[in-house]
Design brief:
Length: 412
Amino acid sequence: MTKDIKVKDGKLGLMGRFVWHFGQFVAGSIYNPKLNVKLENWHLLEDMPAPFLLVGNHVTNFDPVMTSSNQSRVIHWVANDAVFRHPFLRWAFQQVQTIPITKGMSDLDTVRYMHKKAREGGIIGLYPEGQTSWDGLNQPMTPATPKLVKLLKIPVVAVVTKGGYISQPRWVWTKDIRKSRVILEVKVLISQDEIKALKVDEIEERLRKGLFNDDFQFQKDNPVKLKSNNRAETLELFTYICPKCKTVDALKSEGHDVRCQCCDWEFTIDEYGIFPDKSSDFPFESLSEWNHWQQDITSKMTADYLAEENPEEPLIYNENLTLLTGSGLVPLKPLCKGDLKLFKDNLEFITTKGETLIFPISELEALSIFKQQKFEFYYEKVLYRFHYGTPRDSAYKWLKFLEEIQSIQSAG
């Protein structure tokens, strides 16, 4: 799709400069006070001569906005091409020369545009994880990132976001802005002189260590109360298996509390946004540990299901979804409504008219979640996106079960 988007050469035009500076002013006026943003070592960013690559850990949808609005220069961010489907956003991003990338797929056009902006003396902004964190820890880095750093041959500066996950975790809807404290810390990870000498694996290690952040540990070490009336609300978008009874889709959040509708296990997220410790009835040290356990259970459930000879029931399902589809930069259009079911070899969507759309799992590409709950993939070069019936249905569940089936299929 990125071939449909052209990134202009040279510096921003008059309209581009207006859009950039107006956006900076508005974003800074809104998000700095709302999220209680603080800056550390910011002079390292302001004093670094361009060109350079600006990287960061990715914990909220506001990360590039917070960084951009607190410094003086234009940043050419690499952004998910999904945002370009909105006509106004597409126009605005093109004015400020944002570089598009198709999530989950390699894209030579993106690399070419980044290389061009580096040659022009620009600042290129990139989040190596390629997605926002689900559990407050760094996600795996996109494998091509260290090679890209070597190719660009420019210094690497990091803005490490601390406290962002406590304030705005991915499982919270964006309209529910919570307030704690967010610190943006600047580090110079790789200097101009080091680029030539460092090997690709050394660059990867430098990036991994330099960007690491554990938001829950940071909050425990530097506690600030979380101002929110709904500290646990919609956690089930992420935690889809109960730790006590192992039932899928049984957890329900309300306010600060989470309760299993199957076994009545429950817990409360405290006034600092911290989960109970392991000495209580809470079985994990952290949300990340819960996620690892959840992945293990997902793997076992999937393996057991695939071992059945001819299972009649789906592995997982959800009702009352809307299927949207499209290609290129045209806004996605609703195709139909129906129920989604996952079987051994196929993803099946049964429409309200009784028709069945079949998607072979082995042929699905670029599985991903847009924002909190929009599950999508490419099939035969067409993008399919599912909107769920309620704001509590977990798209993350579908991503993980499908990834597990694809992993087992490829290994077999």
